[in-house]
Amino acid sequence: MSRKFVLTLTGPDRVGIVEEVTRAVFGRGGNVEASRMARLGGEFAVLLLAAFPEGKGGDLGGDLADLADRGFKVAITPADSDANPHVGWIPYRIVVDGADDEGIIHQIASRLARHGVSIEEMDSESTLAPTSGAPLFAMTALVLAPPDADPSWIAELEEVGWTMNLEVDVAPADEDEFDADPTA
Fold it and tell me: What is the value of pTM for the model shown?
């Protein structure tokens, strides 16, 4: 039987962070089952789910103490449940592109929350247009809608796009791009 933990780490970006974190996981007989890692500004962020043989993952924080001593923020949380609370929910992919403006993610997230739609994954970035240098926004999200959700949530997202000068595309997600439980 294995025990799972969610590990988050943030700190100044430098070469070798991923190697140090995965060495600590591997050194305890663990396996990284899912992860997201990115440089955000000058910081590097790690979010991962690791499984350990029973009794082996409990002191992972001690193994990462050196990183914490060097200014990294480390949090380790037991992930006791493999149960998927969204069985039977309908997967959708949301793509948003357009002019960057304050509050885009909040506007999208508030509409989704109002209708009980769960955000499973979300990635966004702001870049500068190549010719004009105008700020551009791009976001991709994978969400799960309850089977009984009022379909007006999709129209509400499109309305956000219209009022904020964004292209918002909502479509059923392909099974190969969406896995609500990455440990399954």
Answer: 0.84
- At residue 177 the predicted structure's pLDDT band, cuts being 50, 70 and 90, is low
Let me know whether 52 and 95 are in one domain. Answer: no
Question: How many domains does the structure of the chain reveal?
Answer: 2
Residues 95 and 168 both lie in one domain = yes
* Three-state secondary structure of the chain: CEEEEEEEEEEECCCCHHHHHHHHHHHCCCEEEEEEEEEECCEEEEEEEEEEECCCCCCHHHHCHHHHHCCCEEEEEECCCCCCCCCCCEEEEEEEEEECCCCHHHHHHHHHHHCCCEEEEEEEEEEECCCCCCEEEEEEEEEEECCCCCCHHHHHHHHHHHHHCEEEEEEECCCCCCCCCCCC
Residue 15 placed within a domain: yes
Domain span at residue 55 reads: 2-78
